[in-house]
């Protein structure tokens, strides 16, 4: 058993992207792992930028880059034929390739041959090769926080990153633990938990968050939702394996039904917290809710603040939007830490 | 996407077994799929029997056998070197090999070569090769019953088989849906749900129990337990994907802690039923508990009857031991069918 570990620092590949929304991975790496990104590399037809230095693979290698990360995801998640000469150039320059695309890098013959020729690695973050033991439920030392959600795709990764950063800023020893491909690229290691064989979900989560010193916090990126008809199994295995001391419930203001499945209403925040705590007690009887992380990106400032205040009063826990930060977020951080 | 389908009828292989407890698979197939077993085949040193005709692979093939099933599981689940000539003989006689062992049949060079030479298949039931779509939560026609449990290994498969048989005896159209290797061998098809990639647990369960006529019952073999620290993810994905109309809660009399994890107390039957129904409502708001299946094999008759009666009164649902059958079991069957 071993956790995937990526060669850093990175050179960020933007392909021929002309829409910033296609480059969420690159932007996320710039924002959350900027100290481990030496620059960006793009085809001449690309019109977007991360703002980092534009470098050739050779120049990036000279500045210490260890891998080229594919930081764009066009519709379908396919490696574009137009990228292949550039990707080959990176391998030739001595960089490994890191990808979260649907296409397996090894299934691209040019890349497979070049990797072999230049002794480089092709790393598909989406497909873990590690095997994990079955979970044991054994209590581990150290503290753990897990971000959970009423649904998918509403800010569980962002919330975990923001909390881990805030913990560190307060001098608290903490590690962001990634469970999805973008998180793994940001962290440089982790487990794509939804790609693990079902029998080993909890075991993988246990391996991801091992024994640590008593005052250390693992801040774990949640996946899916206990209320999602397709992904609830992943979420429950992750919850039981992580054994969180603290959960933070993530939600998006105004979202009332499951993303892409409008016939499934979302639970109320209160129900979501109650059900999650009830199930989490199975492996950690002392689990508590640190608060709510509310994605208010669709709301103007005043409305967002009013909503956060209302939820906080109704639920009796801090409620903040980590993107907006401020006193409410600091209150959430304090509540999570129990300080 | 496709569900694994096994070539039947079977010839049951007993290896060199001298202890009937090592031959649970063969005995289960005799009991539950006897109409699809042409006989047994064993090495001269074996001392046990299923009671079926002892046949050579060639004779079995002449009687219509399509595959040899490895019906014994010595400690470790390893294909024994002493078996290999006999397994090769079966391939040469025109039988496919079906195995639920840990050893991959393809990893045994003699068998791999013989399968290729004689044009036969090596089928490892433990390792599904099918891929499944992500679950959709779409409601499907027909009725579904899922056996669930307070723990692993206490009778969920047996209960599902007994209920499917009882439904058929009452003239109700029903199909046993297998989710584990022994169940798959008995049924001849199914999905080893704990071997599916985590993201697709619910999707696989949906595929296993497709649209059917309104009065048809799928009786689905449960796996793991929502209360098991290692396997709860499998159980929740199976629950949400199956969308059961009826659950039957399985338990073993006297078991108070998780099998092999004595520090984890089991929930009460009432708590187990309440939590399961609460979570199951997410994909089927009309789900109900048909009753309790209690494994009373450790108790004498009078004590077992008294315990079944007590649980039934306390929980307000029928409680029966399917192995003991009788009026209590018929009452459970009626409650499941709603008749």
Automatic annotation (TrEMBL), chains A, B:
UniProt xrefs under SUPFAM superfamilies: P-loop containing nucleoside triphosphate hydrolases (SSF52540)
Domain D-glutamate N-acetyltransferase-like C-terminal, first and last residues per copy: 134-327
Pfam families named in the record: DUF1611, DUF1611_N
Domain (D-glutamate N-acetyltransferase-like N-terminal) ranges: 55-128
Coiled-coil ranges (or none): none
Listed PANTHER family: DUF1611 DOMAIN-CONTAINING PROTEIN, GLL3100 PROTEIN
Protein name: DUF1611 domain-containing protein
Species of the source: Steroidobacter flavus
Source organism phylogeny: Bacteria, Pseudomonadati, Pseudomonadota, Gammaproteobacteria, Steroidobacterales
């Amino acid at each position: 058993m071993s956790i995937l570990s990526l060669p850093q620092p990175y050179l960020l590949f933007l392909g021929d992207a002309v829409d910033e929304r296609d480059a969420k991975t690159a932007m996320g790496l710039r924002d959350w792992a900027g100290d481990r990104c030496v620059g960006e590399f793009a085809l001449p037809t690309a019109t977007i930028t991360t703002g980092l230095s534009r470098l050739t693979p050779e120049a990036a290698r000279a500045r210490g880059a260890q891998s080229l990360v594919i930081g764009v995801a066009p519709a379908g998640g396919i490696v574009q034929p137009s990228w292949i000469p550039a990707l080959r150039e990176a391998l030739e320059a001595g960089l490994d390739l890191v990808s979260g695309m649907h296409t397996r890098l090894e299934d691209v013959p040019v890349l497979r041959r070049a990797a072999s020729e230049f002794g480089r690695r092709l790393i598909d973050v989406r497909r873990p090769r590690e095997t994990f033991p079955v979970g044991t439920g054994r209590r581990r030392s150290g503290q753990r926080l897990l971000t959970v959600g009423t649904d998918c795709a509403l800010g569980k990764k962002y919330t975990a990153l923001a909390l881990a950063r805030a913990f560190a800023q307060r001098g608290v020893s903490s590690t962001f633990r990634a469970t999805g491909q973008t998180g793994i690229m940001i962290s440089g290691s982790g487990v794509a938990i939804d790609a693990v064989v079902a029998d080993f979900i909890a075991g993988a989560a246990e391996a991801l968050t091992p024994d640590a010193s008593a005052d250390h916090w693992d801040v774990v990126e949640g996946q899916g939702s206990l209320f999602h008809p397709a992904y609830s199994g992943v979420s429950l295995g992750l919850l039981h394996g992580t054994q969180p001391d603290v959960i933070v419930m993530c939600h998006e203001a105004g979202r009332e039904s499951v993303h892409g499945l409008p016939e499934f209403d979302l639970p109320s925040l209160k129900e979501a917290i109650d059900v999650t705590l009830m199930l989490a007690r199975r492996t950690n009887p002392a689990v508590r809710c640190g608060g709510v992380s509310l994605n208010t990106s669709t709301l103007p400032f005043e409305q967002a603040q009013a909503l956060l205040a209302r939820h906080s009063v109704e639920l009796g826990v801090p409620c903040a939007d980590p993107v907006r930060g401020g006193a409410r977020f600091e209150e959430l951080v304090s509540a999570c830490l129990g300080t």
